[in-house]
Write a structure and sequence with these properties.
heterodimer; A: about 280 residues; mainly alpha; MetI-like fold; B: about 375 residues; alpha+beta; Rossmann fold; OB fold (Dihydrolipoamide Acetyltransferase, E2P); 2 domains; ten-stranded antiparallel sheet; six-stranded mixed sheet; 9 helices; 20 strands; about 35% strand
């Protein structure tokens, strides 16, 4: 409550200079995106002058079979890897919270390695690993590598949620007759849900736009959309890429809004969560 | 008293090297309001948590209605807990919080609905069924926590400092409500608190704990009037504790000598040349200018402190030690500087063995118990 008030008063006190600064930041952030969106409706093939309005490129895009296939691949990879990294990451976070064991700090800090390591190194490592165990690259390797790099993001997001958790709430559930599993499903999971959702969103977006790691681990039949776009851009940015990009921006925005609403509703119901109660 | 509903036998709890509960033996009777009282870190909460099943038992047995439950999980024990910080489920409404235990027991929906409604009525939360815990005050949350625990008809209700977070007025009100609830339902309550006044007003019996050891168990009156250890005498209410030395044990009583005087008291179980403590409550101490048979303890009136219903008098003994006494404020008082003899009614002073002596007795008892076990 108080922070909201504080933010408001700060907003009112914006000096013209900082206002200008903020405008510039947002301009740099969003102008390129706006240009892409604008040119996706351009009748001209070149991205230089806006000649007229058309939906032609959208229609053309849907006719491009290869493009649609790679889009489908991306959705499958992102969907499957998100589900797996959600389950693994959440269990990892809860496990790290609940249990004390030797080398715990090592285990928990090693979560940061896949995040900190340069993507290109990660991608090459994945490729080397798969070829050394004789698994040819394809959908499977792609999904596995996506799970590997997005799982730590889920684990860390959920862990920050679990950190302020009042243990006696779980004890209360057990006291009232719930076993470990029921306690997790009825009490723990609903309480950490906001963290799980934002972790899931992170995993999803990471997977959707990954280029570098996918470049090494995808096979010829499992080209993802970002890889496909990269390939197309090599021959010059065509308007149908603009159209596709616009659709992706739209899709991302929709997902973000939905997850934000879902999170807000959860947080509101729990009323600032466990810190106070 | 019949078969105890809960029986702790030689219960030990260790955290690493640290023994927080030491060979605790405790019987809790069916339907009583028993309070575990002690300063923080005395093992009272750990004991409660072992009964609930949240803490494992390092050694010993816990019997619930004759069955050893020491190895059972919390959800397998027919006891329920009211937590210090309420521990309500923040993502559930009041109704769903209260219904939780019944849902876990797979009770029929219609029955759950009816029983939840009854509970809500009992704890006077009508109209708040759909509220979330975050929208309630501390006292209301406490009622939800109590209803949530009681709806399962537990054999025993465990309460871990449930009133600690409430303000004084609400606290007093909840104290009497809880007590009445317990009387009406006839459920055994095991109540943990560090507040001696709370313990004295609510309990049928009080178990005073200190340093992981049960110091004394008894009714509030017994605990207050006949403390068995120096700790209990000190911890419960105010007490004058005087070091003394037994000079003679005769038929007339026990002759004790202090640094500043001597007295003859009636008590048994003491031997000559033993170091003892004399404990007398301030309200039981009296002073006079005349000689009193058997008492020969002189001091000077140092000051009077008026505190409303009573007046507190500090008397400085010859050794410099100060004793406190209280008298009705309407009583006439000796002027400051008056030399007085202090005394007490024979049955109102308590003589205690000193710690070393207790330790000795404890060892002797343990040896006896262990010997008995071998025979069995």
């Amino acid at each position: 409550m108080d922070t909201k008030k504080l933010q408001k008063s700060e907003k009112a006190g914006f000096a013209p200079l900082s206002m200008l600064y903020a405008c510039l930041v947002y301009l740099f952030l969003y102008l390129p995106i706006a240009v892409v969106i604008a040119f996706s409706f351009n009748t001209s093939k070149t991205n230089i002058i806006f000649e007229g309005f058309t939906f032609e490129w959208y229609a053309k895009m849907f006719d491009n079979r290869q493009l649609m296939e790679s889009f489908q691949n991306t959705l499958i990879v992102a969907g499957v890897s998100t589900v797996f990294s959600l389950v693994l990451g959440t269990l990892c976070a809860v496990g790290l919270y609940k249990f004390e064991f030797k080398l715990k700090s090592l285990v928990s800090n090693s979560l940061y390695i896949p995040i900190a390591i340069p993507e290109i190194v990660f991608g090459i490592a994945m490729l080397v690993f798969f070829s050394s165990v004789h698994i040819s690259t394809g959908m499977f390797t792609l999904i596995v590598s996506h799970i590997t790099f997005s799982m730590p993001f889920v684990a860390i997001t959920v862990r920050s949620r679990v950190a302020g958790f009042d243990r006696s709430i779980e004890e209360a559930a057990k006291d009232l007759g719930a076993n470990e599993f029921r306690t997790f499903m009825r009490v723990t999971l609903p309480m950490i849900m906001p963290g799980v959702i934002s972790g899931g969103m992170l995993a999803l977006t990471m997977s959707l736009d990954d280029v570098v790691i996918s470049f090494f681990t995808a096979g010829p039949d499992s080209t993802t959309l970002p890889l496909k776009i990269l390939g197309m851009v090599k021959k010059g940015v065509s308007p149908d890429v603009n159209a596709l990009s616009t659709l992706m921006i739209l899709g991302t925005a929709v997902i973000m809004v939905i997850s934000q609403i879902a999170q807000n509703r959860l947080e509101q119901r729990q009323g600032g969560n466990n810190s106070e109660s | 008293m019949g078969e105890p509903i809960i029986r702790l036998v030689n219960v030990v709890k260790c955290y690493h090297e640290n023994q927080v509960v030491k060979k605790l033996n405790l019987d809790i009777q069916q339907g009583e309001f028993l309070t575990l009282l002690g300063p923080s870190g005395c093992g009272k909460t750990t004991t409660l948590r072992m009964i609930a099943g949240f803490e494992s038992v390092t050694e010993g047995q816990i019997y619930l209605e004759g069955n050893n439950v020491a190895d059972l999980k919390p959800n397998q024990r027919d006891v329920n807990t009211v937590f210090q910080n309420y521990a309500l489920f923040p993502h559930m409404t009041v109704e769903d919080n209260i219904a939780f235990g019944l849902v876990e027991k797979r009770v029929k929906k219609s029955e759950i609905k009816q029983r939840v409604a009854e509970m809500i009525k009992m704890v006077q939360l009508e109209g708040m069924e759909k509220r979330m815990p975050a929208q309630m005050s501390g006292g209301q949350k406490q009622r939800v926590a109590i209803a949530r625990a009681l709806i399962n008809n537990p054999r025993v209700l465990l309460l871990d400092e449930p009133l600690g977070a409430l303000d004084l007025k609400l606290r007093k009100q909840m104290q009497s409500e809880l007590k009445h609830l317990q009387k009406r339902l006839g459920i055994t309550f095991v109540f943990v608190t560090h507040d001696q006044e709370e313990a004295l007003t609510m309990s049928d019996r009080i178990a005073v704990m200190n340093g992981g050891v049960l110091e004394q168990i008894g009714t509030p009156r017994e605990i207050y009037n006949r403390p068995e250890t120096k700790f209990v005498a000190d911890f419960i209410g105010e007490s004058n504790v005087l070091d003394a030395y037994v000079t003679e044990v005769s038929e007339g009583g026990i002759h004790v000598k202090m640094e500043f005087g001597d007295a003859v008291l009636k008590a048994g179980g003491f031997v000559e040349e033993e170091m003892v403590y004399l404990c007398v409550r301030p309200e039981n101490l009296k002073m006079t200018k005349e000689a009193v048979p058997n008492f020969n303890i002189y001091g000077t009136v140092k000051e009077h402190i008026f505190i409303g219903s009573v007046c507190k008098t500090v008397v400085e003994l010859a050794s410099g030690l100060e004793v406190k006494m209280t008298s009705p404020q309407t009583d006439e008082l000796y002027a400051v500087g008056t030399r007085v003899n202090i005394y007490w009614r024979e049955d109102q002073g308590v003589i205690l063995h000193t710690k070393e002596e207790q330790l000795y007795n404890l060892i002797e008892n343990t040896v006896q118990i262990e010997g008995g076990m071998h025979e069995a």
